[in-house]
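Q: Structure for this?
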Amino acid sequence: MSKKKKDSSPEQAANTQETAQAAADTKPADDFDDMFDFDDDPLGATGVSRKSLVIFFLIDTSGSMKGTKMGELNTVMEELIPEIRKVGEADTEVKIAVLTFSTDVKWMYSEPIAIEEFEWARLSASGVTSMGAAFKELSARMSRNSFLNSPSLSFAPVIFLMTDGYPSDDYKEGLKELSSNSWYKFGLKAALGIGNEANDDMLAEFTGNKDTVVHAYSGNQLAQMIKIVAVTASQIGSKSMTLSDQNDAELSDEDVYAAKQKMLGQQIQELVNQNDSDDVSFDTGW
Amino acid sequence: MFNGFSHSVMGASHEKRGIVCQDSSAYKVGEGFAVAVVADGHGSKKHFRSNIGSKAATEAAIETIEAFYKDPDAFDENFKTRHKQIVKCVEKQIIMRWNEKVLDHLDNNPITPEELSKFGPEEFEEIPHESYYGTTLVVAVAGRGYTWGFQIGDGSLVAVFEDGETSMIMDYEESNPANITSSMCNAMAATMFDSFYVDKKRLLCICVSTDGLYTSFGSDYDFLDYHTIIAGQLANPDAFMPSLQNNMKKRSRFGTEDDISVACVYDVELATANNDIIKAKIAENKRLAAERRSNLLKR
């Protein structure tokens, strides 16, 4: 540690104190862990938070999801949590927020929950598909004054929409409101259409790109697609991308987020094509 | 009587990338005032001398404040009635002084071939000279019976008052989710400051910190509680300093891996006299934190 006295005169030195410190300690990283092991740390009461990422799941729980679709979705979401947990193990804290929409819109928890503490609450299906209302609710919560209030938030959110049908309300109005939200603009968006009734064009309006829309026609596919999209989006979402391109020219934040969204589309399509294998039959239906 | 401290730690990510600490921190206790300052150099490609820029910013801020307090009695009298105009004037003078410092540095230390090699010829020509040194700046001043401060770019100001009330005086800018930073090097810098003035409450301490500290917390509550704990330790600052420095390293290593700087000025007598009040507040904060945690997991 270097400390530098900067007082320019003895008179000042007599009644003032000043320290300036530009460079800090540069001890080898290996020594650090031992240094933190001390008993009497008054500041230890406030925990250290890693870089964090919030994943929003928007899930259609309308009546048409009843039966196999909802049963499968509940099962795969329970299985998915440990897989996403692995994404956060390195240096990112992943938080989960689940918004369900049918006749009403409802959050599973009152705020995003750290993946280590998150427990899936099994969902049931009934009512109509108020997707526009869900978009408005999401927009209201994606704010520094609400769900995105954690100081450690370091990445734009991942937003994953799952639905099996056409909205029963004015989804365009909801999407218009959501589209003005900066977090949505910079967020990584993906959507899963479930069954024959889901409209991929409408889902692409939500994601802004057809490559980040996938479709599942069977229980097996549903499980695969949810895992592919959620895990890939979490990995890319928590990636710290450098702010320069291959020519070392600086990129804007918009460019970085656009690059992430493009990467998500490419990786999802690659993985989906790999999984178009014989063991998943389109004929199994629901 | 005021006292203070300042400390900077290098971010773990900077260590990994082999780049120097971009933060600077300083404080000064003068007659009738104490000032705490931190600056966070941008550190990106075109701001390749921002470690020098951040140091120049802390120096410019302290020199300017000191000049304004040359006659502290006269300053106090003027400031209480015309603080808005005077703060603007201080901000402008800091910008001017900083520009002088960094342009002097450039005159005495011309761009090296190594620095130039990272840019194409046209790319380099487009960068204004002062941008090489781009930095944020956060300044807090404790006066006699009043407190004021200002900032340009990211960073935090937290005040702890005599009753233990702890508050962030300037809020996060909601319109800027992508963290596009206002900067001392911006041509419109003088218009980009936020500022505050408080004279209704007696100040115990005020801390300024670079963004690396704030982003190592999971919630604003924890961030504020951290400062209340600091206030509770100021009755015995020498014993506390090693703990704070260690904690800052820990936060940088396990948090967002950014550089972290903290500078603080405090009222020595009040820190001792009100220590029991602050300790009681810390105990209450702990209870509330446990309550919030148990509520969080309710569906």
